[in-house]
Amino acid sequence: MLSDGRLATRRALIVLCLVVGISQSGRAQSNSTDNSWSTTSQQVDQTGTANPTRTRTTHSEADGRVIEKTVVEAKGPDGRYVPYSEIERESVRVNGTTVRNVERSYGRTPDGQRTLTQETKEESRSFPDGERKMTRTTSNPDGNGALQVVQRALIDSKEVSPGVRETRTTVFSADGSGGLAPTVQIVERERQTDAKAVEFTKSTSLSDGAGHWILSEVREGTTRPETDGGSTKEERVLRPDANGKMAVAERTVSKQSAGEQSGTTETYSTNVPGLAGDEGLRLVRRESTVQRNGGSGERNTTRRLEQANPGDPHAGLHLTQEAIDIVRPGANGTAAQSSTIVRSDSTGQLTVVWVDMGHTDNAAVVKTVTVPANKSK
């Protein structure tokens, strides 16, 4: 279970990633771009169960190299903010086909010294025929501080026939004897059925430790455009039933409006809170997002989560959480942002539990919020 400080840190990083749109791969996009920005924010847990934190991300980009650093500080017993954790990311475009990324996470020892907690290295290569290969290696320090590889993922994506792309991922994990053994295998396939619609499947298998793969989950579905300019994605999730046979356990329907300003995802499941699970697929979750642009460039995004009530499973869905993100353009190419999370309590009343407020001079964010309000017909 996460400690209060670590829970606050994780929340802070999640909110920050949503605001500045940090990419985890392929960050080196240009060989000559000189682009630097920073984002600062302060997070307060309104429930009082976690210490306040503040986060600062700095980003520099020049000559095919991107360096990004996120520092989280937590309020100490004396009321002063002290370093709590750090994440450093570096992306280098080696040449026209190869990008290398390194991410290092740091924590703090009881005496306040910075210590490396994890390192992830990633190298991706593209080929003239459209094939893409990636190797991602994760290492943790051992008792002496030396890095030991704990996981390696090999990803190979290529077009296997016209209009069909297949991506194979094999994950190797530490086997306890100093080596790595394959533990997870994922096969994804996308097929362009016509000029716009796409069929997809994703199969996940787990190793039984004896050289055999056991199918654990299959996701399959279709993404298609709608006449209003939006899109609809339908997905079925199959998992082994009590007899070990693959059976539909979940179904999701996602609808996105044109321009991705609003969308809804409904989840139907055989696992219904409060029910035995023999009533077939039932609606158990609805996530909706609505984005509105103001005349002064303000952008307001509201995300709502509705779920089934375990105490009254036949009562339908009820609102359990709402997240409100507001970004406003400021002076000198900056933007102010606030993120508020409210949750329903035992009486069904919504209560603010989390607030994040900050500023950024990230040109991508500022440009987005200064676009004039939508004046469509």
* Span of the ends, CA to CA: 51 Å
Named CATH architecture of one domain = Beta Barrel
Indicate the low-confidence ranges by residue numbers: 1-27, 29-33, 372-377
What portion of residues is helical? under 10%
Helix tally equals 2
The count of DSSP E runs of length 2 or more, i.e. the number of strands, is 20
Give me the strand/helix succession: HEEEEEEEEEEEEEEEEEEEEH
How would you classify the helix and strand content by structural class?
Answer: mainly beta
- Determine Rg (CA atoms, Å): 23 Å
CATH class of one domain: Mainly Beta
Determine the strand fraction and express it as a percent band: over 45%
Summarize the main sheet. 20 strands, antiparallel, barrel
Q: Indicate the overall shape.
A: globular
CATH topology of one domain: Lipocalin
Mean pLDDT: 87
